[in-house]
Amino acid sequence: MSDSGNALDFLTSQQVISLSGGQLAIGTDSNLNSGGISTVPPWIQPPVGFSSFDQQGVVAMPAAPNGVATILTFTVPSGYDGVIKRLSHNATGGGFVQGSGDLSWMITLDGRPVKNYSNMLTELGTTQIPRFTDGIQIYSNQVVSYIITHIANVALAGSSIATLAGYYYPRQSGG
Questions:
Q1: Residue 170, beta-bridge partner list
Q2: Residue 70 half-sphere exposure, CB side, CA atoms within 13 Å?
Q3: Residues 48-100 pLDDT 10s
Q4: Checking CA distances to 37, which of 17, 27, 62, 136 falls within 20 to 30 Å?
Q5: What is the DSSP code (8-state) at residue 32?
């Protein structure tokens, strides 16, 4: 068996290089330091020791006007930081018009809205094909929530589905 080989990591679409001693690093040869560890920041691509997560949730459409429901929530494991790389949220039941302002989705960290993810008025991705993000950083013991607000249009019924997926990695010293 060879000490090194290459593969493509589905999660990051990056090349995975197997190093001697059984260590794995993600990136290209130019992204590896002399110890064979990736020098690319962990929010760009997962470091050695990462583990994937894929959270999903479904809730009944909250009642308008201004009904609010949490579609999913989870806590980042203690001692780990992470990155949300893929997301989706959708309305089922028909009648929803994209961008109408009838529905709004929001991602929060410890109850605070995430910049650029606090007033999403259109569906993003699907549960089968989520939308990629540039990476939403999450930190040890942080509570992550996906929330829907039914602002208007009492005729809308059904449910809302959401997913958040990415990876956790061991907390870096000094972080």
A1: 80
A2: 9
A3: 899 999 999 999 999 999 999 999 999 999 999 999 999 999 999 989 999 99
A4: 136
A5: B
